[in-house]
Amino acid sequence: MAALARRAVDLGRKVFAFKPIETGCQLENGQLVGEDQELICQAAGDWQRDKLRGVHQFAMAAAPLVAARAEAREVDLELIERTFEEGMIRADLTLVEGAGGWRVPIFSGLDMGGLAGRLGLPVIIVARAGLGTLNHTLLTAEAVERDRQRLVVVVLSERPSEPDDLVSTNVEHLQRHLGVAVIRLRTDSKMLDPLILAE
């Protein structure tokens, strides 16, 4: 998501890049700081402060449900929604990053997919480009569809070491089965322009 936020800023958009929950955070100056939360906020222009940089930070590198219980805390869904609305009205492009995957539990009865539904944005699946992505991406897309949410694009994050023919085949297969655009992202973030300009 950092590449998407950075490219949108380059194209003149004011971006609200929001990762409401992060686990595996590090203690800095007496406060838990999420590495991903910081990265995407900086990519979006580093204008976000306080809760707009992320509502919940947990030390344990685990699902939010597990990490919150380890600290005898609970995820505050209403605070996430209020913060999301506050950030969204201050920007012209809003990006929200989940934590751990579509079915990762946040608290009893709500997973990341449920949070996505509450926030009401179209869905972007970001996945690895190489070996293993077909199963992971297709299962995630099925879950998005089952939850009656709108998948708009798949972004495959490619590493230089991944064989070109394998990645090309994965792109073709996913496009054929999902019926949405599949963007192959290696180094040139201009590949994301159609997605940004369509918003």
What's the topology here?
Blueprint: H1 2-10, E1 15-18, E2 21-22, E3 26-28, E4 31-33, H2 35-43, E5 56-57, H3 64-70, H4 77-88, E6 93-96, E7 105-107, E8 110-111, H5 112-119, E9 123-128, H6 133-146, E10 151-157, H7 164-178, E11 181-185, H8 193-197
Parallel strand pairs: 1-6, 2-5, 9-10, 10-11
Antiparallel strand pairs: 3-4, 7-8
Task: Characterise the protein shown here.
- The chain has 199 residues and is of the alpha/beta class.
- It has two domains: 1-106, P-loop containing nucleotide triphosphate hydrolases (Rossmann fold), CATH 3.40.50.300; 122-199.
- Helix content is 40%, strand content 21%.
- It is built from eight helices and eleven strands.
- It has helices at residues 2-10, 35-43, 64-70, 77-88, 112-119, 133-146, 164-178, 193-197, and strands spanning 15-18, 21-22, 26-28, 31-33, 56-57, 93-96, 105-107, 110-111, 123-128, 151-157, 181-185.
- The strands form five sheets. It has a three-stranded parallel sheet with strand order 9-10-11, with helices on one face. A two-stranded parallel ribbon has the order 1-6. A two-stranded parallel ribbon has the order 2-5.
- Helix 7 (164-178) links the parallel strand 10 (151-157) and strand 11 (181-185).
- Helix 1 runs parallel beside helix 2.
- The protein is globular and about 50 Å long.
- The two termini are 15 Å apart.
Structural domain count: 2
- Return residue spans where pLDDT drops below 50 for at least 5 consecutive residues: none
Terminal Cα span: 15 Å
- Give the CATH H-level superfamily of the largest domain: P-loop containing nucleotide triphosphate hydrolases
CATH architecture classification of the largest domain: 3-Layer(aba) Sandwich
Tell me, what is the CATH class of the largest domain?
Alpha Beta
Q: Specify the biggest β-sheet.
A: 3 strands, parallel
Helix content: 25-40%
Number of strands: 11
Calculate the mean pLDDT score and round it: 94
Q: Please provide the ordered H/E string of secondary-structure elements.
A: HEEEEHEHHEEEHEHEHEH
Output the strand order for the largest sheet: 9-10-11
Strand content: 15-25%
- Helices and strands: which structural class? alpha/beta
Shape: globular
CATH topology call of the largest domain = Rossmann fold
Total helical elements: 8
Radius of gyration: 17 Å
